Amino acid sequence: MITTLSRLLRMRLALMNGVAAVGGSLLFPGSAEAGELCALGGGVALLAGAGSALNQLLERDLDALMQRTRLRPLPTGELTPLLVLLTGLWCLLAGSLLLFAAGGMFPVLLGWGTLAWYLAVYTPLKRSTPFALLLGALCGAVTPVIGWSAAGGSLIDFRIILLAGVLYLWQIPHFWLLQRRHADDYRRAGFPLFAPPAKESGAAPFFQLWVVALIASALMLPAFGVISRSAAPWCLAFCVPLFLAGVRKLEPMLFASLNLFPLLVTAALYAGR
């Protein structure tokens, strides 16, 4: 049952969201209490889990058509739609209470807004337009903003805008490559493709420009104090292979580098505080 719930809530992704939210909180000057940070991380992780459960409820018919999602709890019959709905609502309630304990009502409202955007805007739109990805990426970018706001930070502070912007830019090439790898799956389910299939040669100039924009914004992180300046050489050392992989179209290397990117940024946030 634990494994089933883990697949329903996509626990690894949910926990990554929680860690990113705590990183956003640590970016704000001042010392947060350990209990508040735990409540913040747990609250965001639960809201992310709620989003995953409710999304799987809405897309259970499409998940059954795709190889990469056909073993999720609803297509396999391990869980009923009612149980998935109740699990999602419980995670939503528990996550909201933890977020409120961590930073008051504003981060809760940010979390609700992100969840509503994901379920009511991105989820239906991605069936009709490939550019829904540009809207859906906003959800991942907001995660550290929730932590920042819980710590008392202003939403117009350039540091949190830059961090959110970097995470937004990261998601586009990441999901571009994911779509290329699973193009047949997405077509089978009727999703319009943002990226050409992997068997088609090359990557669009748009994609390469996006990778360059990601690298440029990442190099701004130490310059503007988002991460420690001592981390600048590591940031540069990571960006060079990312750039070369993008220019030379080395997709396996590029995909691996992009998967590591948010982990390294989050680690740099923690190391500098």
UniProtKB/TrEMBL annotation:
Keywords on record: Cell membrane, Heme biosynthesis, Membrane, Transferase, Transmembrane, Transmembrane helix
Pathway terms, separated by semicolons: Porphyrin-containing compound metabolism; heme O biosynthesis; heme O from protoheme: step 1/1
EC number(s) per entry: 2.5.1.141
Statement: the UniProt record of this protein carries the keyword NAD: no
Major site of localization recorded for this protein: membrane
Compartment list: Cell membrane
Top-level taxon of origin: Bacteria
Residue intervals passing through the bilayer: 12-31, 37-58, 79-100, 106-125, 132-152, 158-178, 206-225, 254-272
Reaction catalysed by this enzyme: heme b + (2E,6E)-farnesyl diphosphate + H2O = Fe(II)-heme o + diphosphate
Pfam families in the record: UbiA (PF01040)
Enzyme class: transferase
PROSITE patterns in the cross-refs: UBIA
InterPro entries, per the entry: Protohaem_IX_farnesylTrfase, UbiA_prenyltransferase, UbiA_prenylTrfase_CS, UbiA_sf
Example of a GO MF term: protoheme IX farnesyltransferase activity
Membrane topology summary: Multi-pass membrane protein
GO biological process, one term: heme O biosynthetic process
Family: Belongs to the UbiA prenyltransferase family. Protoheme IX farnesyltransferase subfamily.
Primary role: Converts heme B (protoheme IX) to heme O by substitution of the vinyl group on carbon 2 of heme B porphyrin ring with a hydroxyethyl farnesyl side group.
Protein name: Protoheme IX farnesyltransferase
Organism the protein comes from: Geomonas silvestris
